[in-house]
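Tokens as discussed.
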């Protein structure tokens, strides 16, 4: 049924007094709301609104934007089901923009159907800044009118004189800037303009997006790189769908190689999208792009200021912005002529969006490429098992870059077995004597070291020595993490933070708290005590806010002003430090606990990436992993540089259990503030689960590992089935049997990556 706009009579603005003889023209308009389908509207006479047009429509008492959608296939078939012509409300106006391309519309529908999200909610991601639909307000600058003569009758006050003199040199300026410079009020400028002594010139508010120059400064590629680049450029020229895995060790030049594909797409006059996992961390990437192409690309991510966001959206929609680098949401922008997609670090978990519309940007990017009949390149040094399996099955082509550029060798990886007495750190310390000695040697040689621990703050747990009470987040099933630098306790799940208390909230003992376990701040403390002379920097997402702060530390490291860098995974990504020769991993086992099916794969990827920071140039690097389980296949693979046998083993295990990518999975997360209501719905879903089917496995309902998050109680269910069974229709039938009250939310997560 298409309804929801039948209030026209009430508001008195939709029913014409005299029915026109011409038949009513009807269009379907998709609204940016969690609605499963578009609503019908009437097109006023004289208005053109083909599919894709951005329009303003009434909805109840509101007005909002929408996109004219394509006719339903059965639009003419069942007129009885439709809202009567007389009840239809009319489009208010159309926006002066290129229509949303058909491929974007098909993509939105596809994502909605795959992720089981309302199509309107997916469209909302494509038009996430509705203000961008409006023509930006033109800013006006002023210059001196032609000729030396002043207009007749203009009295030259000192203020007016200053303004006119100022404009004798320099560019036209905004009224506000001119007034400030001349030390006068805006009325002075206005009166000069009114009298004709100043001429207004329209000025664009924000910089344009210059076209990157494919010939600006290309690198001379090595033999392997050339072959890889030629294969990619051929795929760009083919202008057909293809998916290619670009698999190469860190430092092999994958970026340089895919830049050649970007250059080719630019030469062909097309748009390019590069998806990066964490755009805020990629100042280095942007600089490299500017080095290669002469200008920076357009950026798209969640931290952009609204004016730039609007401006960028328009530039993408008009085709003016030619290369867009962005986080996952950039995938939904309405590109009129996308010719290539690159997904860099395709294995990264950050490509999975976990809230709202739950989707995996890498997987959806492949779908987008397919719908748009364009090539996609997936680049990684540690490809996901999903992508490798696709490559092995021949669905994706594969290009290997086996060697580091410039002959740098891979670092030597040693395992420090913390169970051995001589390797164990002293009590309440975290660095093994073996690692300490290596750090000392490195600094003595004038080289740099890096210590990696994927844990922010000082200590992950604080407890009371006298009663054992543990400080816990009031809103989550999580310990509070002590941050000594800011003197606060933080919940890393919901952001709650509080002053460290003076006495125990349970037994009231004073000064009884002890920190348990290490975070990066604590490792930094140990290092400073060991090497008081060393110049130490800590690199985490909370100590360095924003890409610039990060960039400053990176510059310092590059300039040799830092001896020891200590950090979390933000430090692991992409950075290239020529003097860095030692990487120590404080707790290599950290990611292996828990019931995550990808725990081993992820730990391998992360530690491999961290290890890849060492010895990127002529000086050989070494990596030391502190572990309690040196026999674990992840540790063995890292030490032996044997990624492929590790992945083969991992693949065998998952195949045997029909786990992804050899089977399908979907999760249901049932949550709400009222624990009883949540449990009730969870057990009802448990009872109605499709247990009769033998090819499906159903787990749960069970409390989620994060049983309470932001004050909401959470239960999980997991549905697992073979590769050739689509889970969505099964889920749809299942969910249709249980009425969900407004106080409980059931989130569907197709292909889950998080099991918290
Ligand atoms: P990856 O993306 O595989 O980690 P990069 O493309 O970042 O590798 O290359 C690693 C380093 O080597 C970078 O500093 C890059 O500029 C440099 N490099 C790679 N290939 C070349 C080349 N053909 N000429 C000059 N420098 C190169
Ligand atoms: Zn919390």
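Sequence:
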């Amino acid at each position: 049924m298409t309804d929801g706009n039948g209030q026209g009579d009430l508001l008195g603005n939709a029913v014409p007094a005299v029915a026109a003889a011409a038949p009513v023209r009807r269009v379907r308009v998709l609204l940016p709301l969690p609605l499963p389908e578009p609503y019908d509207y009437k097109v006023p006479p004289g208005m053109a609104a083909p599919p894709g047009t951005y329009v303003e429509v009434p909805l109840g008492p509101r007005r909002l934007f929408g996109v004219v959608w394509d006719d339903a296939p059965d639009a003419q078939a069942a007129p009885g089901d439709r809202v009567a012509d007389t009840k239809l409300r009319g489009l208010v106006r159309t926006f002066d923009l290129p229509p949303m391309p058909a491929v974007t519309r098909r993509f939105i529908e596809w994502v909605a159907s795959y992720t089981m999200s309302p199509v309107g909610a997916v469209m909302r991601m494509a038009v996430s800044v509705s203000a961008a639909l409006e023509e930006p307000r033109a800013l006006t600058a002023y210059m001196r009118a032609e000729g030396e003569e002043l207009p007749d009758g203009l009295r030259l006050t000192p203020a007016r004189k200053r303004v006119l003199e100022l404009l004798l040199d320099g560019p036209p300026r905004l009224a506000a800037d001119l007034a400030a410079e001349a030390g006068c009020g805006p009325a002075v400028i206005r009166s000069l303009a009114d009298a004709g002594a100043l001429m207004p010139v329209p000025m664009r508010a924000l910089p344009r997006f210059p076209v990157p120059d494919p010939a600006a400064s290309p690198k001379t590629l090595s033999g392997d790189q050339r072959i890889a680049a030629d294969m990619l450029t051929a795929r760009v020229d083919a202008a057909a769908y293809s998916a290619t895995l670009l698999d190469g060790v860190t430092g092999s030049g994958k970026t340089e190689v895919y830049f050649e594909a970007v250059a080719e797409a630019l030469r062909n006059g097309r748009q390019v999208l590069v998806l990066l996992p964490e755009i805020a961390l990629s100042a280095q990437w942007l600089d490299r792009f500017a080095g290669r192409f002469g200008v920076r690309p357009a950026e798209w991510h969640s931290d952009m200021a609204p004016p730039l966001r609007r401006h960028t959206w328009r530039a993408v929609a008009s085709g003016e912005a030619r290369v867009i680098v962005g986080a996952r949401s950039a995938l939904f922008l309405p590109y009129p002529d996308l010719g290539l997609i690159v997904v860099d670090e395709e294995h990264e978990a950050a490509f999975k969006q976990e809230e709202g519309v739950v989707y995996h940007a890498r997987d959806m990017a492949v779908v987008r490429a397919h719908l748009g009949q364009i090539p996609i390149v997936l680049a990684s040094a540690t490809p996901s098992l999903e992508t490798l399996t696709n490559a092995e099955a021949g669905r994706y082509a594969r290009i290997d870059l086996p060697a580091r550029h410039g002959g740098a060798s891979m670092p030597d990886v040693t395992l420090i077995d913390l169970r051995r007495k001589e390797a164990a750190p002293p009590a309440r310390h975290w660095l093994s004597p073996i690692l300490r000695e290596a750090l000392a040697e490195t600094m003595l040689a004038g080289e740099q070291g890096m210590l990696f621990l994927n844990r922010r703050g000082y200590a992950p747990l604080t407890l009371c020595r006298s009663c054992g009470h543990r400080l816990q987040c009031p809103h989550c099933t999580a310990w509070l993490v002590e941050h000594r630098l800011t003197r606060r306790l933080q919940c890393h799940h919901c952001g709650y933070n509080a002053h460290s208390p003076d006495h125990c909230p349970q037994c009231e003992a004073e000064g009884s708290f002890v920190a348990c376990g290490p975070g990066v701040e604590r490792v930094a403390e140990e290092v400073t005590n060991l090497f008081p002379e060393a110049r130490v920097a800590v690199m985490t997402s909370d100590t360095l806010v924003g890409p610039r702060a990060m960039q400053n530390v990176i510059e310092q490291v590059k300039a040799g002003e830092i001896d020891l860098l200590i950090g979390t995974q933000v430090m692991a990504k992409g950075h290239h430090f020529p003097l860095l020769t030692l990487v120590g991993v404080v707790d290599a086992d950290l990611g292996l606990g828990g019931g995550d099916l990808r725990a081993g794969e992820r730990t391998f990827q992360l530690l491999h990436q961290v290890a890849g920071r060492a010895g990127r140039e002529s000086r050989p690097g070494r990596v030391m992993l502190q572990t309690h389980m040196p026999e674990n296949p992840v540790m063995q693979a890292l030490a032996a540089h044997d990624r492929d046998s590790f992945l083969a083993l991992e693949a065998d295990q998952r195949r045997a259990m029909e786990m992804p990518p050899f089977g399908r999975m979907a999760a249901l997360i049932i949550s709400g503030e009222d624990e009883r209501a949540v449990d009730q719905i969870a057990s009802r879903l448990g009872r109605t689960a499709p247990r009769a089917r033998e090819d499906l496995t159903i787990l749960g309902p069970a409390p989620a590992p994060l049983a309470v998050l932001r004050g909401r109680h959470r239960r999980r269910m997991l549905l697992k089935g073979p590769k050739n069974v689509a889970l969505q229709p099964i889920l749809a039938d299942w969910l249709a049997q249980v009425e969900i009250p407004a106080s409980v939310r059931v989130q569907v997560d197709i292909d889950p990556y998080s099991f918290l």
